[in-house]
Amino acid sequence: MQFDDDADLDTSEVEDVRGSRVPGGRATIGGGIAGLVALLLGLFFGVGPEELGLSSGNREPRTAASSAGEVAQSCRKGRDANTREDCRMVAVVNSTQDFWRDEFTRRGGRYAPASTVFFTDRVNTACGTATAAVGPFYCPADRQVYLDLGFFDELRTKFGASGGPFAQAYVVAHEYGHHVQNLTGTLGLARDGRQGADSDAVKVELQADCYAGVWARHATRTPAESTGRPLVTALTDQDIRDGLDAAAAVGDDRIQERFQGRVTPETWTHGSARQRQQWFYEGYRTGDMERCDTFR
User: Minimal CA–CA distance to 14: which of 79, 65, 81?
Assistant: First the structure.
């Protein structure tokens, strides 16, 4: 995955609070047993920690090496995105939102942008206080994506994904898929509390995977607002394979097998590894959000 070295990055779409200390108290999801339950229920790539109804005791965040607001000083150009992980995430956020802004306009609508919050360990959101144990998530109440960059290491070490820059981009694009669902009204279909392979919760997640694929198809064609040129200059077949591998690694069946030793489809919330790959590739193959109707 390559970015235009000379392209400007828009850091206003990212809020960097890494290194900030969040006051102690009840956390919506914590480490230990609560964090393990979150893993087993597949909250990764979910739509907000509040929906699990779990809480943990106090946990003091560790001191972060990164200072709050670092991206504003360090992530200026596409060349920064080609060398730094946090700047890469800024570029992916920019590219994703550039695409959806154009797509909504093409369809006669208006895209309302959502910022991404980089945090370390714990963060306060309109959906509750969450720790890094929940993984990346989208909070519909404040229309923001939350991301602890340490998750990308866990994606490889805990979940067995091959990694790579596009695996990370897939994570962010999936969360912005939830934002698109929030704007179009389909996100609310997952709020009935049902779980299982055929539940609306799974269908919502698979649609977000498909939307991530749609963005990927157009990423090298969508002009950045600041330059009029595509911010993403190259996506290779290996990049797409890395995205498919990441999608499989966080399938409910893979997570359940790894952490509880058995697969229980009646408790699925995100879909199987095969389904997640299938729907991401459907979006990438067609480039058409209309083909992402997982409810049909």
Answer: 81
